[in-house]
Amino acid sequence: MLERLAVREHTVGELAEPYRMSLASASKHVKTLERAGLIQRTVRGRTHFCRLNPKPLAKADEWLRAYEKLWDVRLARLQALLRHPDND
Fold first, then answer.
1. Theoretical Cys-Cys bridge with 26: which of 14, 16, 42, 52, CB 3.0 to 4.6 Å?
2. CA distances (Å), origin 24, targets 20, 40, 49, 55, 80
3. Using CA atoms, how far apart are residues 3 and 26, in angstroms rounded to an integer?
C-alpha cells in the first residue's frame, strides 16, 4: 500500500483492490498505517482518501543507512578473510 501511495493518493477501496481483501480489512490496515504516522487520510463526502506521509520513512531510512555502512565494512572484512584465510 505504501508503494502505491508513493505515486499518488488512493481511496481505501483502491488500496484494497490488488490484495483481494475486504474493505473492512483494508480499513483496519489503513488505520494502523495512520496511527504509525505513515499515511494521512482525508474524507471528502463519504470517500476516504489516503496519501503517504514520507517523514517517518525518511527517519527510518536515515537510521538504516548508518547500519548499512557498518555492515558493508564488516562484510568486506569477512569477504577478504574468506578469500585469504592466512592473512588475519
1. 16
2. 12, 18, 15, 27, 52
3. 15
Can you give the pLDDT at residue 66?
A: 86
- Domain layout of the chain by residue ranges: 2-53, 55-88
* Amino acid sitting at position 40: Q
pLDDT in tens, 23-60: 899 999 999 999 999 999 999 999 999 999 999 988 88
Burial of 72 (0-12, 13-18, 19+ CB in 10 A): exposed
Whole-model pTM: value is 0.68
Neighbours of 5 (CB within 10 A): 21
- C-beta contacts of 75-83 below 8 A and 24+ residues apart: none
